[in-house]
Amino acid sequence: MANAQAGGQWYPPEWPERIRALASGELAPVTPKRAATVMLLKDTGDGPAVHMLRRRTSMAFAGGAYAYPGGGVDPRDDDRHVRWAGPSLDWWADRLGVDRAGAQAIVCAAVRETYEEAGVLLAGPAPDAVVGDTTGADWEADRAALVARELSFAEFLDRRGLVLRSDLLGAWTRWITPEFEPRRYDTWFFAAALPEGQRTRNASTEADRTVWITPREAAGGYDRGELLMMPPTIATLRQLVAYGTAAEALDAAPTRDLTPVLASARLVDGEIVLSWPGHDEFTQHIPTGGAPA
């Protein structure tokens, strides 16, 4: 079971042992899998709210923690033609720091996971249109087939004659799971506004609750220890507080730094110091034989 340290920061109790094993060479880092997650925004009277889901407490990774819809890249989405609107694949490859195939797979993952876990689809019948309603038995059948990986996202778009609206996404930040974690992800975080006419719902089997909450409210809940979150989640929430509308946040996205954030652990004066570059609030000091301080 995870611990909450420093407010609502998610902290697995096995980390100290794994960190020591990595430092001694007994543990070899696993290669991180590419993933994407989306901060879905909608305007309220108190500024933009973000859609968050709470991971089931039974989940092996970050159980009970609040997060955004997201998941791993599907390899099938990097080599098949996808009807595409918005910036070119070359533009996205440069922005995300990958090749064209990787860019397509990452953007497809962002759009697909938002549909799979929140029922919101950033695609439309034309480059300047977005679907208005994704409810109904036929939509649900396709969504279930995507979740089961019986249907690739490219096939789903083709079947419905839809164009992926990459222009509705703004690449926000990039975090890589620490080297001592058994499950590692290289995750690109995107921002997007809830399309008009669409509604979110809890479509994820991994979540037991979903909320629309302002970044300021969510950060306050974290600071009081009421909402459990991983460092990337609370870090992005704090960054979103500055924006008065969803459009303002999306306008800021193209200039944001996508240098990956990767935690480091080092031994200093008999204790492990765990830190995330550029995010001092997450620094933890772990006695070599105990839990974090």
TrEMBL record:
The keyword Manganese applies. The keyword Magnesium applies. Residues 32-235 form the Nudix hydrolase domain. Its cofactor is Mg(2+); Mn(2+). It comes from the Bacteria. CDD domains: NUDIX_AcylCoAdiphos_Nudt19. Keywords: Hydrolase, Magnesium, Manganese, Metal-binding. Signal peptide: none annotated. InterPro entries: NUDIX_hydrolase-like_dom_sf, NUDIX_hydrolase_dom, NUDT19. This is NUDIX domain-containing protein. It comes from Streptomyces althioticus subsp. attaecolombicae. The lineage of its organism: Bacteria, Bacillati, Actinomycetota, Actinomycetes, Kitasatosporales.
